[in-house]
Design brief:
The complex is a heterodimer of chains A (about 110) and B (about 120). By secondary structure, chain A is mainly β. In chain A, strands 1, 3, 4, 8, 9 and 10 form a 6-stranded mixed beta sheet that branches. A 4-stranded antiparallel beta sheet of chain A has the order 2-7-6-5, with no helix packed on it. The chains are: A mainly beta (about 110), B mainly beta (about 120).
Chain lengths: ~110, ~120
Amino acid sequence: GESVGLHLPTLSVQEGDNSIINCAYSNSASDYFIWYKQESGKGPQFIIDIRSNMDKRQGQRVTVLLNKTVKHLSLQIAATQPGDSAVYFCAEMRETSGSRLTFGEGTQLTVNP
Amino acid sequence: DAGVIQSPRHEVTEMGQEVTLRCKPISGHNSLFWYRQTMMRGLELLIYFNNNVPIDDSGMPEDRFSAKMPNASFSTLKIQPSEPRDSAVYFCASSHPGQGAGELFFGEGSRLTVL
């Protein structure tokens, strides 16, 4: 039969609004969680990481929150801009596996002017 | 400063042909990764090297796939013979232990279409 591709979760926001992108994970043994951004036709680009013993980390216009109780990770983007339109992936890593990353399925963020 | 360089950017080939994808990591980076991206399976790690030595190739789909890293500045991913289900974007990435955890630098990818 016909194959069906992944249906990426989507988030559409107005320019200037704050965006929240969510990710659920299952591996309690992960040491780090990482967010990547992928623009159309390009490779993924590192945004920010958070160690598993932290619950919040801030970067430039971005904040990552980690809730280990419910195994939930979120990326908050402040004052979203059109250039933020991309697919956002969460990933996890264990220190014992070197820099090997396991990526989630991604969320398509569209910023409307 | 040049990033990770991949070639070719696009390749269209026929089933059964050999495909070779190439990667030049960022100078000074000692880890190199090959990922495959498809709509069905997302981003999958195929293999990674540390100091030119393959560390984990458990993601390589089957014997038709092979990867080499003869020196610190060059790696290849070969598919022989290629099949239509190999159609995907193949990314190479590199990293250095002095960087942030999980911070990989990706190339722009090689889009492979096998007819």
